[in-house]
Amino acid sequence: MKRRQLLIVVLGLGFLIVITTIGTSLESLLPHHPTAPVQVAQAGPYEVTLRVDPNPPPTSQPAHLSLQIVKKAAGQLVSNAHVTLSSSMTTMDMGTEAITAQQQSPGIYQAQAHLGMSGTWEVRVHISSPGAPDASTTFDITASSP
């Protein structure tokens, strides 16, 4: 009886290892959708435009992220906002990187993000501006191996 139980446990573990290996292999074989050259999203009262350079971003170097933030109702560029970005991989836990974007000119903010593995990353943009409610939105960026 104990021999039969041991066989069931060993076969179960072997099956689990095989399924995990197949799932990991399929993830690397499936094509990833390229990142759009320009992405636009609504974040509360703001319209946020994201540009990624280079596109697609390689895993070997940081991606340059440029954000344009416009107060949609007034059509005004948003200056002096505190803009933070957090990036996390959508398919596996690679941790979360938090980055503060720096204002380059009125309404234009820039940051560098290191996307350390090929695949789809979610970048959450959080905007805090004096006299306005905080807002956030997300963008998907696909990184590729060089």
Number of strands: 9
Largest sheet: 9 strands, antiparallel
Please compute the radius of gyration using only Cα atoms: 21 Å
Overall tally of domains: 1
Throw out a few tags for this protein.
alpha+beta, Immunoglobulin-like, nine-stranded antiparallel beta sheet, 1 helix, 9 strands, 19% helix, YtkA-like_dom, YtkA-like domain-containing protein, Ig-like_fold
Q: Would you write up a description of this structure?
A:
The protein is an alpha+beta fold. It has one domain: Sandwich (Immunoglobulin-like), CATH 2.60.40. 19% of the residues lie in helices and 46% in strands. Strands 1, 2, 3, 4, 5, 6, 7, 8 and 9 form a nine-stranded antiparallel beta sheet that branches. Strand 5 and strand 6 form a beta hairpin. The longest helix is centred in the first third of the chain and has 28 residues. It is elongated. The relative contact order is 0.21. The model has no long low-confidence stretch (mean pLDDT 86).
